[in-house]
């Protein structure tokens, strides 16, 4: 079974890439289940009901998030009524929404998704390690055959530690938050696929999705500036994890970094195959 995880969707450029590219990617890689981090999908900061519903309509099965999940006030209500949108599970008791979800893929395989957030240089919330292990075990007890964990964290060491901690428990542990795709994908010894950061789906001609002149100006002056989402060099970053539902173990993990042109070529190939079948 093939799982697709799409790295942090940033603003309209990221949403447009998902709209145009998801179906061709699913066809090209025989994807059975799609997960995406959507916490930056509303102009780079947060998510709204309209945008969330839109992204689900494109074919995303579950969305994760992180420290920007509450940036749009309407998310506080939306997340309560949309269980497929997750916030980090290690927020203290009483936070709206849930940090884990059990879904059934189209092929009948039950897939659990867990979202946790690191604490180094981020909010000092509850322990992400024991929370992740608890949620993985709970989902498996409820029938999950595969469990994917999005660890939304700033520092590399915290993410790598999480990968080792959950090796043999989760099917995959993939990091988000930095918006920079790393090149350390591997399957750990006990069968957990790991990548430190999936990267960003959105404009790559700025600074982690933000218009570059504003960021440079802030570094030079130290003064507050208004951040706007960049617009150019849109790329879709993510990973494809292949796993065996009978064992819950991953057999491979492969990074994706696709430009708009790459996606158009995939779409053209999909159309050609459809025409040939017709």
SSE layout and pairing:
Elements (H helix, E strand, L loop, with lengths): L1 E5 L1 E2 L1 H19 L3 E5 L11 H9 L4 E3 L10 H7 L18 E5 L5 E8 L10 H14 L4 E7 L3 H11 L5 E5 L9 E2 L5 E3 L4 E4 L8 H10 L12 E11 L4 E11 H18 L1
Parallel strand pairs: 1-3, 2-11, 3-4, 6-7, 7-8, 8-10
Antiparallel strand pairs: 1-12, 5-6, 9-10, 11-12, 12-13
Task: Characterise the protein shown here.
The structure is a single chain. By secondary structure, this protein is α/β, with parallel strands linked by helices. The chain has a single domain (2-277), classed as Metallo-dependent phosphatases (Purple Acid Phosphatase, chain A, domain 2), CATH 3.60.21.10. The protein is 32% helix and 26% strand. It has seven helices and 13 strands. The strands form two sheets. Strands 1, 2, 3, 4, 11, 12 and 13 form a seven-stranded mixed sheet that branches. α1 packs parallel to α7 (260-277). The relative contact order is 0.17. The mean pLDDT is 96.
Summarize the structure.
The protein has 278 residues and is an alpha/beta fold. Helices cover 32% and strands 26% of the residues. β3, α2 (49-57) and β4 (62-64) form a beta-alpha-beta unit.
């Amino acid at each position: 079974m093939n799982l697709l995880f799409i790295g942090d969707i940033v603003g309209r450029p990221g949403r447009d890439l998902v709209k145009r590219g998801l179906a061709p990617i699913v066809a090209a890689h025989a994807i059975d289940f799609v997960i995406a981090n959507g916490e930056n999908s509303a102009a780079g900061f947060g998510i709204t009901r309209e945008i969330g519903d839109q992204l689900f309509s494109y074919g995303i099965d579950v969305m994760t998030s992180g420290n920007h999940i509450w940036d749009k006030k309407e998310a506080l209500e939306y997340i309560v009524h949309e269980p497929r949108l997750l916030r980090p599970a290690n927020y203290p008791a009483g936070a709206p929404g849930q940090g884990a979800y059990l879904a059934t893929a189209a092929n009948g395989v039950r897939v659990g998704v867990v979202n946790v957030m690191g604490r180094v240089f981020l909010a000092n919330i509850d322990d992400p390690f024991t929370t992740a292990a608890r949620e993985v075990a709970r989902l498996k007890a409820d029938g999950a055959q595969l469990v994917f964990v999005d660890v939304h964290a700033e520092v590399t060491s915290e993410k790598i530690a999480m990968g080792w901690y959950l090796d043999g428990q989760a099917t995959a542990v993939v990091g988000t938050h930095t918006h920079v795709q790393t090149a350390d994908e591997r399957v750990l010894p006990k069968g957990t696929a790991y990548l430190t950061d999936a990267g960003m789906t959105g404009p790559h001609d700025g600074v982690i999705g933000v218009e570059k002149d504003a960021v440079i100006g802030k570094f030079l002056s130290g003064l507050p500036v208004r951040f706007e989402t960049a617009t150019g060099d849109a790329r879709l970053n993510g990973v494809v994890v292949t796993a065996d539902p009978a064992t819950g173990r991953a057999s491979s993990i492969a990074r994706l970094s696709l430009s708009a042109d790459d996606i158009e070529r995939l779409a053209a190939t999909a159309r050609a195959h459809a025409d040939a079948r017709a």
